[in-house]
Design a protein that fits this description.
This protein is α/β, with parallel strands linked by helices and 286 residues long. Helices cover 36% and strands 19% of the residues. The protein is built from 11 helices and 12 strands.
């Protein structure tokens, strides 16, 4: 009997939370830890949640909605001391911030190919030597017996090439500068009518999630034709529901209903961001 308890957080991607909920239907127990107003989990909460039956800790490296970076090295130390395998969802961080597994202290690290400019439909799971992982697709001995099915050499090569490109950190420093400059432009335009979601410093260089206070996010997007951005709320029959992430962070509904996430890439230019600012100036004349 190896145990049946999993620890995770309230701001994980559904790719983590949904399997935890499914495992609960099979008898497992999942502790979903709260986060602070920036979206960060307290490592001490992780320590206190550990029981003799805990078999896995899973905490994302950085949040996909607000960009907050979690204290993974600190949690990794706690997991090692307790002898519990530790997984991090690094879909948002590979190619954006350092993700060396030894520095993070993780036993398992997942990668989504399309988030790092690889083709869609391919990813990777790092498994530290000695970490026991059962096969989750049975039928043949592919991928060291862990996942049956003939691999796509084309997708694997695409992921490898993308990861080689992602190793160059210089491109993301430029993205960080653009993101900070864009946020400054928004703040200068809107003042107190704009608030930030996520940590002001421990954040991804490419993700900016802001609240247009007093508005609904979908209204803001409607004024930005041709701009690919996303909202942090959903409208249903005249009411607005915040995303689970913003709700877990305790974002006031009056602010969070106007949440919009802007995601920059290595090819984003300042000219493109200026166009977004120009469109917003038309909606928010001084």
């Amino acid at each position: 009997d190896r145990g049946d308890h999993i620890i995770t957080t309230a701001v994980e991607h559904p790719a983590t939370l949904a399997p935890c909920r499914f495992l609960e239907t099979l008898g497992a127990k999942a502790t979903v830890l709260p986060v602070d107003r920036f979206g960060r989990v307290d490592p001490d909460d992780v320590r206190q949640a550990i029981t003799p039956r805990t078999v896995l800790i899973s905490v994302m490296h950085a949040n996909n909605e607000v960009g907050t970076i979690e204290p993974i090295p600190e949690i990794g130390k706690i997991a090692r001391e307790a002898g519990i395998p530790f997984h991090t969802d690094a879909a948002q961080t590979v190619g954006k911030i350092p993700t060396r597994v030894d520095d993070l202290g993780v036993d398992l690290l997942s990668v989504a190919g399309h988030k790092v400019y690889a083709p869609k439909g391919v990813g990777a799971l790092y498994i530290r030597e000695g970490t026991r992982v059962a096969s989750f697709v049975h039928g043949a001995g592919h991928e060291s017996g862990r996942r049956a099915g003939t691999e796509s050499a084309l997708l694997a090569v695409g992921l490898g090439a993308a990861c080689e490109w992602a190793r160059d950190p210089a491109g993301m420093e430029h993205v960080r500068d653009l993101c900070d400059r864009f946020f400054t432009g928004l703040t200068d335009m809107l003042g107190h009518r704009l608030t930030l979601n996520g940590h002001p410093a421990a954040r991804l260089p490419n993700t900016l999630n802001v609240n247009f206070v007093g508005l609904v996010g979908s209204e803001v997007l409607a004024s930005l034709p041709g701009v690919a951005a996303s909202t942090g709320s959903a409208c249903h029959a005249g009411s607005v529901t915040l995303s689970p992430v913003l709700s877990a962070m305790g974002v006031p509904p009056g602010e969070g209903m106007g949440a919009v996430r802007f995601s920059l890439g290595r090819t984003t230019t300042w000219e493109e961001l200026e166009e977004v600012l120009d469109l917003l100036r038309k909606k928010f004349p001084s």
